[in-house]
Amino acid sequence: MLAALAGGVGAARFLSGVLDVLSPADVVAVVNTGDDVVLHGLHVSPDLDTVLYTLAGAVNPDTGWGLAGESWTAMEALERYGGLTWFRLGDRDLATHLYRTQRLRDGISLSQVTAEVARAWGVEACLLPMSDDPVETRVDVVGEGEVGFQEYFVRRRHAVVASGVRFEGAERARPAPGVLEALATASTIVISPSNPILSIAPILAVPGIREAVTARRRDTVAVSPIVAGAALKGPADRLLTELGHEASVVGVARLYAPLAATLVVDEADAALAHDVEAAGMRCIVTGTVMHGRGEAASLAQTVLSA
Amino acid sequence: MLAALAGGVGAARFLSGVLDVLSPADVVAVVNTGDDVVLHGLHVSPDLDTVLYTLAGAVNPDTGWGLAGESWTAMEALERYGGLTWFRLGDRDLATHLYRTQRLRDGISLSQVTAEVARAWGVEACLLPMSDDPVETRVDVVGEGEVGFQEYFVRRRHAVVASGVRFEGAERARPAPGVLEALATASTIVISPSNPILSIAPILAVPGIREAVTARRRDTVAVSPIVAGAALKGPADRLLTELGHEASVVGVARLYAPLAATLVVDEADAALAHDVEAAGMRCIVTGTVMHGRGEAASLAQTVLSA
User: Fold this and answer.
1) Which residues of chain A are within 8 Å of residue B99 when distances are taken between CB atoms?
2) Which end of chain A is flanked by fewer CB atoms within 10 Å, N or C?
3) pLDDT tens column, B215-270
4) Which overall architecture, per CATH, does domain B2-132+170-305 show?
């Protein structure tokens, strides 16, 4: 059984590869909810939805998030009011948020509604939010002060300098039901190729999760989201630098060495394998850039063989 | 200046006629919010929106509510989840609920967001919710017990027998800012052709409003929503009977006599004019069925001349 710590697009692509190699009954994804946000009163869980839509084969292939063939009627109509349209919710995607919000109001947990939504899409892998309790990733922006994650990531298109990241509520959050069990019993734990600071760190900030991963360090494999010093998507490279880390596989290795015995890096970083090992991680070099499902499956196979 | 107590479709059509006769600056609508409902976490104000969309010239002419040329992508997508789709929210209409919900969360009042939304549509008449405080119309359904208004009206399509109606929260509600002032200063108060029990009674249940109308009884004109013993739309006729009233202009006169000096009835009810007067109201007979804007304007003119 494989348990993966997962953020958004990179993790979703990796997991779709995993499902070409493993039975969905053997896959548990522990998904970041630190960038969940309430918009218009609706509970939006961007990473859960990206993983869900990807595994359902319904994701927009151009963006890696949102639904393919989406329409934007509600957002266009919202412009009349000068409403909050910087975070664009497609018409079909809105249904997911409407349903999730209604079910949470009905009193069920985020894990439960996530299971319902996954079932509706025929996704058989187990998707777990990291926690059913609210955790809010907040970013210190130089010259502005602290803003919510989506304010940083979407509204400012992460084109500002960050000086810190904090996970509001994390210390009071409990891992969602099934999370610690999955981490304890998985034959392999994977830290997906997601932003270490914005996607993986909030999961690890939920008390008990970092400890559970650390306890399985030997069976834990991380996939570097940094390739040749750059993030394939998003601000991971710049953010690592801004927060005093090195934007390289070596910087990633220094972050993950206490948690994972192995780091999988791209062939572009083969020359740094020795430095990764010096940072305390075994280094596996392979193709990690997932343009399509074949590459994702091949990466998954390499990770499982690690 | 004209102040109208208003429910949904009938009131909206009447008010559109009023605006062919009066300047919008001289028209205040005090709109029922007893059938407001939170769906999927969104604050939906059906009567306010029906009046708004009608006065904006954007209403669906076939139904009398909702937007013309609407699409239903979000609702269709919600069916995948088995979500709450008995109350159908169109994609463009959703934007109104998204905006209203966000603004209420921002801390502004329902009156304020109503003014913003009206301005965005270029509606210059003053639309006021009856109250900024929550009032919830609840219906006792025989054999079921009490249900929310929309559960009765939309979900059961009012095809059940009611034994009572109650306005939860009304006793603690205050009239929205401007309501009592409009009723005190209007040259004419109109009780629109709306359901007396489900649309007008909740407005009158807000402490201060019934008294304000009663104090202006001589200048208050009601338009009967019952024509030839039947409601033009909705369950007003059956509901009047179920709750022990007479489903006729005479029954309406008995309800409104303490509040309004004059009742406008349709020509189909000319023979009952004497009985209306016996019930304590002056009776004006005219065409009250509004198929189009011309008829609405003509009815408005008659009401204003009363």
Assistant:
1) 40, 78, 81, 83
2) N
3) 999 999 999 999 999 998 889 999 999 999 999 999 999 999 999 999 999 999 99
4) 3-Layer(aba) Sandwich (3.40)
Whole-number Å distance between alpha carbons of B218 and B214:
9
- How near does any CA of chain B get to the CA of A134, in Å? 17
Residue of chain B nearest A115, judged by CA positions: B81
Location of each CATH 3.40.50.10680 domain in chain A: 2-135+170-305
Within an 8 Å CB–CB cutoff, is residue B116 touching chain A? yes
pLDDT in tens, A71-95: 999 999 999 999 999 999 999 999 9
Residue extent(s) of CATH 3.40.50.10680 domains in chain B = 2-132+170-305
User: What would the pLDDT profile of B144-191 be if each residue is shown by its tens digit?
Assistant: 999 999 999 989 999 999 999 999 999 999 999 999 999 999 999 999
| Contact call for residues B176 and B110 (beta carbons, < 8 A) | yes
Distance from CA of A68 to the nearest CA of B (A): 13
ipTM at complex level: 0.93
Cβ within 8 Å, pair B102-A95: no
Spatial contact of B85 and B78, defined as CB atoms under 8 Å apart: yes
Is there a contact between B92 and A74 (Cβ–Cβ < 8 Å)?
yes
Q: Give yes or no for A120 touching B (CB within 8 A).
A: yes
Minimal Cβ distance to B98: which of A40, A95, A121? A40
Q: Is B258 helix (H, G, I), strand (E, B) or coil?
A: coil
CA–CA–CA angle A192, A194, A197 (5° rounding):
120
Minimum distance, in Å, between the CA of residue A94 and any CA atom of chain B: 6
The neighbouring-strand residues paired with A245 are none
CATH code given to domain A2-135+170-305: 3.40.50.10680
